[in-house]
Amino acid sequence: MEKSSLITQLKNKIPFETKVQFQLQKLKCSSDQDDYFNFNAKEKRIFIFLAADYGNLGDVAITYAQHQFLSKTYPEYQVVEIPISRTLKGIVQLKKVIKEMDIITTVGGGNTGDMYYQIEHFRQLVIQNFPNNPIISFPQTIDFSTTEKGRRRLNKASTIYANHPKLTLIARELRSYHYYKKHFKNKVLLLPDIVTTLDRSKPEFERNGAIICLRKDKERKLNEQQELELTNYVKERFKNFEYYDTHIGGQGMSMRSKITGLFKIWDAFKGAELVITDRLHGMIFCHITNTPALVFLNNNHKIEQSYKWIAHNPRIKLVKKYHVGDIATKINQLSQLPETDKISLISAYNNFKTMVD
What we know:
By secondary structure, this protein is of the alpha/beta class. It is built from 13 helices and twelve strands. The chain has helices spanning 3-12, 16-29, 57-73, 87-97, 117-129, 148-162, 174-183, 224-237, 255-270, 280-289, 302-310, 324-335, 352-356, and strands at 44-51, 77-83, 103-106, 109-113, 135-143, 167-171, 187-190, 210-213, 241-243, 274-277, 293-296, 316-319. Helix 8 (224-237) links the parallel strand 8 (210-213) and strand 9 (241-243). Helix 3 (57-73) crosses helix 9 (255-270). The relative contact order is 0.12. The mean pLDDT is 92.
């Protein structure tokens, strides 16, 4: 066995937490300065930790919406994003300059749990390192597995969270809210995904054709045969159709690249007669652009539970059980709906400052 191969195998056996702790200690001992963290010392600041700088447009949209919301809700504060790729450096640098009046937030999403444990571990490090500042965990879906490892990680998270006296947890659907209340001692709120506060329905575009936006990852529930059958039906039903994904790939993306990708998919949805998706933010993008959508479940509860926030929107139809005849009926119903104004969920956040205080 080659030496380089042996070293790689040994590195792979080192627990993720151990690697992170080593990197954190190394950064603490470093004298390198990063201009990104040269903040205005006179201003009060709100930090957004774990900000998406990678190509998942759902997470990019959450970061964008959270930034927009915080800027409007706390106009006296400077809002600063700490990209997830700079989490450790951000922790080290901020500990040197943070003030008690500063507020820390972590991005919303679906990464509280052990499926995306690296992100959850970073969240825990943020919570541990800023015990004197208010921390708001924006609306999350929480999902720890029932395996032995999942239970250990849940207990660890519960302990770390409980040790922070000013931590507010926000669930983005009812099942996660009850889970938080059962397993965590912190203040828990229930609010819709922050992206639902956006309105991208104007200007209106002429609608033409359909968009298929389906998962290819471990959260997928539709099988290949069902997807093929669905695609063939769409080809027959619509003259034009395109494939889109809310995941465009890439790491360490610039702000311009992220926002360009986000606006591009929103405009594409606004120009479609119908979007077929099994992505949570595929559904939410349809809601904020007022686009008719046929939504399929993924392999966990986040779509079905989050749909309850927008179930009153007649332009979004949820398919709980796959059946071609039912799908055809729902598409026909959507095609006959007149254009109506978008239904806003911003009112759910009206008393946000009071709720988290």
